[in-house]
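Help needed: design a sequence for this.
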């Protein structure tokens, strides 16, 4: 499983539409479709029921969304913490040079 697949999945869920998700992500629609299909293949389940224009989460998709949102939130928190750590390290370095 790749992080971009989780981000793409989350965005498709937000818009219930692969084309709109692709536009928001600034990637091609086939790239989003491929990422979601690869994710479904890896998991062995359908995350969406597809219609002509939209997608609707399956029960399994709803469960996966809730768990993946937690993972993505933890990842974003970790990134923020690392940025703060970097800032503190720079401040320490600047203080030592004074």
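Sure. Designed sequence:
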């Amino acid at each position: 499983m790749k992080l971009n697949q989780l981000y793409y999945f989350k965005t498709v869920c937000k818009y219930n539409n692969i084309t709109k998700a692709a536009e928001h992500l600034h990637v091609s629609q086939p790239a989003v479709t491929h990422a979601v299909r690869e994710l479904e293949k890896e998991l062995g389940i359908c995350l969406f029921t597809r219609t002509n224009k939209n997608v609707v989460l399956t029960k399994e998709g709803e469960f996966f969304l809730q768990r993946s949102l937690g993972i993505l939130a933890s990842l974003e928190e970790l990134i923020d913490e690392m940025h703060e750590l970097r800032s503190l390290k720079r401040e320490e370095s600047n203080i030592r040079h004074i």
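Helices lie at 3-15, 18-25, 29-43, 59-96.
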